[in-house]
């Protein structure tokens, strides 16, 4: 058993170093290349759809932010590698946060490829790398299979919902920047954007904290996850009825509902509060 644990720690340490090097060395080039492609294609897109002009400001702001977060996450991974090998209790929760950064950031940066950017979606590589680290950390923890399954479902849906919530926030800002009648607000369909975006962004912050605290088996993590999900439901559902041209708010609500279900299943809830083995 001890040999198996040591093997898992070595795998986690090696993976941490590899992902760290990827985030520090490769990710900046991937992000800059992707940003260049997005902006070049956006120049043509706005000729026919001027409502997308806000994309220049949005992408020039958030691509570098996620790039910097990933870079620092890589540095942290290198610094804590010795602690990973020692199997120190605090390491796994921190690893999950560090891996969540490229997972979420990469997925956000991938979205323009769905709409107007051709070619291979480079940011997805960043997201895949982060997800590998995220899931390996969950499945190699010192726990039984059911515990790992509970963590996998809850923590994965937290990450998925956080990603979607961040995108909703960005979308709200994009639409507000090019709204009709600016700087005034012409109707409820624009007023609601000033709330739905910010609520979703606040929920993202809470969900990052929830990932950390749930991995630490703190009850506060369960509460933060539940608060995040209910907050998103409370704002996304009415927004979907007000802004019917997109189903994005419905998709976020569905993710939030699944998260709530997982959090409220008694056997799942009990496992989220158990102490991590040393």
List the helices and strands and how they pair.
Layout: H1 2-48, H2 54-86, H3 91-115, H4 123-139, H5 145-177, H6 188-191, H7 193-215, H8 219-242, H9 248-264, H10 266-272
Helix pairs in contact: 1-2, 1-3, 1-4, 2-3, 3-4, 3-5, 3-7, 5-7, 5-9, 7-8, 8-9
Essential attributes:
mainly alpha; 10 helices; flat; single chain; 278 residues; 2 domains
Count of distinct strands = 0
Structural class: mainly alpha
Order of helices and strands: HHHHHHHHHH
Low-confidence stretches: none
Cα gyration radius (Å): 20 Å
Helix share, percent:
over 70%
Strand content: under 5%
**Mean pLDDT score, rounded?**
94
Shape: flat
Chain oligomer state: single chain
Count of helices?
Answer: 10
Biggest sheet descriptor: none
Q: Count the domains.
A: 2
Distance between the ends:
13 Å
Can you describe what's shown?
Helix content is 83%, strand content 0%. The two termini are 13 Å apart. The chain has 10 helices and no strands. The chain folds into 2 domains: 1-142, no CATH class; 146-278, no CATH class. The protein is mainly alpha-helical and 278 residues long.
Brief description of this entry?
The chain is built from ten helices and no strands.
């Amino acid at each position: 058993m001890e040999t198996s644990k040591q093997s898992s720690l070595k795998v986690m340490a090696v993976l941490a170093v590899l992902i760290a090097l990827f985030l520090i060395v490769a990710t900046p080039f991937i992000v800059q290349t992707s940003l260049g492609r997005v902006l070049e294609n956006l120049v043509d897109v706005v000729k026919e759809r001027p409502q997308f002009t806000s994309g220049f400001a949005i992408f020039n702001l958030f691509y570098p932010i996620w790039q910097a977060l990933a870079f620092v996450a890589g540095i942290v991974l290198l610094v804590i590698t010795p602690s990973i090998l020692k199997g120190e209790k605090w390491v796994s929760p921190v690893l999950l946060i560090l891996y969540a950064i490229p997972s979420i950031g990469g997925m956000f940066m991938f979205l323009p490829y769905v709409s107007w950017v051709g070619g291979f979606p480079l940011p997805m590589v960043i997201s895949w790398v982060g997800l590998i680290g995220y899931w390996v950390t969950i499945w190699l923890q010192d726990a039984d299979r059911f515990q790992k399954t509970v963590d996998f479902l809850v923590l994965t849906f937290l990450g998925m919902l956080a990603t979607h919530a961040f995108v909703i926030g960005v979308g709200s800002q994009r639409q507000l920047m090019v709204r009709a009648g600016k700087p005034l607000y012409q109707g409820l369909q624009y007023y609601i954007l000033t709330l739905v975006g910010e609520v979703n962004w606040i929920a993202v912050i809470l969900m990052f904290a929830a990932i950390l605290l749930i991995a630490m088996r703190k009850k506060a993590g369960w509460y933060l996850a539940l608060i995040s999900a209910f907050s998103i439901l409370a704002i996304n559902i009415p927004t979907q009825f007000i802004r019917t041209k997109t189903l994005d708010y419905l998709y976020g609500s569905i993710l939030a509902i699944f998260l709530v279900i997982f959090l409220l299943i008694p056997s799942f809830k009990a496992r989220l509060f158990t102490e991590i083995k040393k």
